[in-house]
Amino acid sequence: MSKRSALHEATWPELHEAQRAVLLEVLIHGSRSRADLARRTNLSRATLMRLTRGLVELGLVTEGETLAPTGRGRPSEVLHLRPEAAYFVGIKLTGDALYAVVTDLHAKVLASDERVLESRAVEDVVRLVAEVVDGFRGQFALTAVGVCLAGDVTYEGDQPLVLESPFLGWGTVALAALVERATGLAASVSNDVQALTVAHHWFGAGVGCTNMALIAVGAGIGSGFVVNDHIVRGSRGHPGKVGHLLVTEHGPQCDRGHTGCVSAFVTIPAILQNSGNSELEQTIRAAAAGDEASDRALRDAGRALGTVVATLADLIDPQKVIITGEALAVARYSSAEMEASIRERLDPAAEAVQVELVDFDFADYAWAAAIGAIRHVI
Q1: Calpha distance 351→33 (Å, rounded)
Q2: Residue 71 has pLDDT above 60, yes or no
Q3: Residue among 180, 190, 114 at smallest CA distance from 145
């Protein structure tokens, strides 16, 4: 059980729906004048004044400079987020390790930790989560903790439930409730790619997009989508399963026995199998040096990745598709093949899809989990 101290906890205040709307505007889109916030939230100036006064009193925002009106009207104060108003722990679980970060309210990473999983038993992992959280308590007044992992996460009411996590060997685990009990903090749990999608929508490469998709490629491949500013969860907790889309009827088999699917080409294990190498970096170096098997494996991966991008573009019509993950170097090496594959598969009437390759560090998943905690309390 976590050792809690009032000095090192911060209870998130109860906010009215209109207060949350105002706070989210400042949180996601940056400092705003009261006049601008009134326009964006469709609130009267008097109502907005009352709501923002409450947010100031709670310490979540602060008043800044006064802007002169551009036309008729009165001067308007600028409201700024107070990032130090709350701190959040984000944790990414793999089958072997725990990655953790602390962020402020503006999702800036302030501290990090990494631990080896000595055991994958649920109770042992939860105990380690609580230990890591306790390690941060001496520096930060923590508000909530978010956890993400590879696997299917669904909801029973508003409570997340891990249905399956193959790397951890888990099935049907009420992880959020267990973490809350062990840490004394509000907790959120999500699939790792879903968490990364939300993180980029609020604070990363997807800011300003109402419709976007994210593809994360590494040991596996997964995707997440935001439609009309809402993350798509699916009815059973596993949207974004793009790994077994058909690329070609002729080709290698994936680990599930499918011939020519995306997972048979684009994941790190598939690339190593197809190239005959033992490491991804080795494959990229060999391909650049002229090794035909390595070059072919990477270019085939690029074509498979293009299949995923075009399929998502045709399905949800996003403003942007973000590609990130441990195997991002594959997309960079084979960008020409990926782009050609997108053109071949994209609906002829569709506009060209904007694709952005975003640098990746494995701790990004922990950062995303912390943003999940921010989202959970707000």
Answers
A1: 35
A2: no
A3: 180
CB 22 within 8 A of CB 52: yes
Q: Report the candidate in 143, 149, 59, 61 with the shortest Cα–Cα distance to residue 102.
A: 143
The C-alpha R_g of the chain, in whole angstroms, comes to 23
- 6/185 Cα distance (integer angstroms): 12
**Mean of pLDDT values over 72-91:** 84
Going along 128-169, which residue ranges are E strands? 142-149, 152-156, 159-165
Do strands 212-217 and 320-324 pair parallel, antiparallel, or not at all (unpaired)?
Answer: parallel
CA nearest neighbour of 2 among 138, 140, 185:
185
Tell me the per-residue pLDDT of 260-284, one tens digit each, with 9 for 90 and over.
999 999 999 999 999 999 999 999 9
**CA atoms of 164 and 239, how far apart (whole Å):** 14
CB 294 within 8 A of CB 277: yes
Q: In whole angstroms, how far apart are CA 28 and each of 40, 77, 208?
A: 13, 19, 9
Average pLDDT over the chain, rounded to an integer: 92
Cα–Cα distance measured from residue 198 to residue 276, given in angstroms and rounded to the nearest whole number: 36
Residue 172 — left, alpha, or beta (φ > 0 → left; ψ -120 to 50 → alpha)? left
CA distances from residue 8 to 15, 55, 87, 185, 310 in whole angstroms, order as listed = 22, 22, 10, 11, 48
On whether the pTM is more than 0.70, the answer is yes
Give 20-85 as a 3 state SS string.
HHHHHHHHHHCCEEHHHHHHHHCCCHHHHHHHHHHHHHCCCEEEEEEECCCCCCCCEEEEEECHHH
pLDDT of residue 184: 96
Instruction: For residue 241, give the nearest of 267, 256, 220 by alpha carbon.
Output: 220
- Tokens representing 137 are 């308590």
Cβ partners under 8 Å of residue 132, min gap 6: 89, 91, 98, 100, 113, 115
* Angstrom distance (rounded) from CA 12 to CA 2: 19
Query: What's the pLDDT at 76?
Result: 63
Which residues lie closer than 8 Å to 297 by C-beta, 6 or more apart?
265, 271, 274, 275, 283, 287
